Amino acid sequence: MNETLQLAGKVFNIQRFSTHDGPGVRTTVFLKGCPLRCFWCQNPESQTLRPVLLHNAGDCVGCGNCASVCAAGAARIEAGRAVIDTDRCTGCGDCLPVCPSETFAIAGRDMTVGEVVSEVIKDRMQYINSGGGVTLSGGEPLTQHAFSLALLAACKGKGIHTVLETCGYCDYSIIREIARHVDLFLYDIKTLDDEKHIDGTGVSNNQIIENARRLVNSGEKILLRMPLIPGFNDNEAEVKALLAFAKELGLGPADVNLLKYNPLGEAKYEKLGRGQELRRLEAQSDEYFEHLSGLLAHDT
Fold it and tell me: Sign of the CA dihedral 231, 252, 149, 109?
């Protein structure tokens, strides 16, 4: 077998029939690892490369089977329910088959490029009929840049349209190398304000902004996206700043996309034993989101 196809990466989900991660019907491959720590993260299980355990404590019957098989001593029973010590948990998954309530799940597994391509290719006719393809998401796919490069190249080799969803926080040499196999970049801009970016994500946006400039200048197709986070960047000033940045790059309103906040990821913090980190946010109303989106439509 080709050595490239045997290259392994950390995958935590493969979502088929997706219609929100690029043109047409797509298969979205979610990879582990991310250098940012956005307080609103939709996929906190993706932040580390190692497998992590999710536990739906509300369905636990307190049988103690998990504690009896946990070699790391990470599981114990308190007040009739399993409690997981996340510092001790290795994500081995031994607790999954012995849990009668199926309250456990593991996020993260090793897959080879060949294994992922075998899954992606199943929906080839959907891609052909809809103009879709494969999207790499995460986490941040460029954290596993060697695996992402090999996977995108393999997909392109089979004539599959490719999209890379990225925060752009990496050395430009990585993006430049991978761009040869990317048809479209979905490029997240959280905010143009560097101080606010550091506060919200833990890192500066200087490299992110510079990489966006260099991508556009090199002729790559890019869609700037801003996830609208309540109380952080969901206001007219932020949207107008994003539009101004797009103009500076020679892009138009059609190359900018706003994403309404989705609170569905909040439940994952509790399942990961990280409930103390959770900031519960109220999603924008449809009317307010449409108002902000209207700024793109009326930009001149």
Answer: positive
Q: What is the pLDDT along the chain (300 residues), one digit of tens a residue?
A: 477 889 999 999 999 999 999 999 999 999 999 999 999 999 999 999 999 999 999 999 999 999 999 999 999 999 999 999 999 999 999 999 999 999 999 999 999 999 999 999 999 999 999 999 999 999 999 999 999 999 999 999 999 999 999 999 999 999 999 999 999 999 999 999 999 999 999 999 999 999 999 999 999 999 999 999 999 999 999 999 999 999 999 999 999 999 999 988 899 999 999 999 989 899 899 999 999 999 998 765
Which domains are seen in the chain, by residue range?
A: 3-48+108-297 (3.20.20.70), 52-106 (3.30.70.20)
Between CA 228 and CA 238 the distance in angstroms is: 9
Q: Report DSSP letters for 142-158, one per residue.
A: GGGHHHHHHHHHHHHHT
264: tokens are 């569905």
Quick check: 242 and 227 in contact, CB under 8 A?
no
Alpha carbons 149 and 256: distance in angstroms, whole number: 25
Measured between alpha carbons, how far is 143 from 49 in angstroms, rounded to an integer?
9
Q: Which residue from 227, 233, 224 is spatially nearest to 299, judged by alpha carbons? A: 224
Quote the pTM value.
Answer: 0.94
- Beginning with the edge strand found earlier in the chain, give each strand of the sheet holding 184-188 in spatial order: 109-112, 8-18, 26-31, 133-137, 161-166, 184-188, 222-227, 256-259
Which H helix or E strand runs over 11?
A: strand 8-18
Distances in whole angstroms, Cα of residue 254 to Cα of each of 132, 294, 297:
19, 12, 8
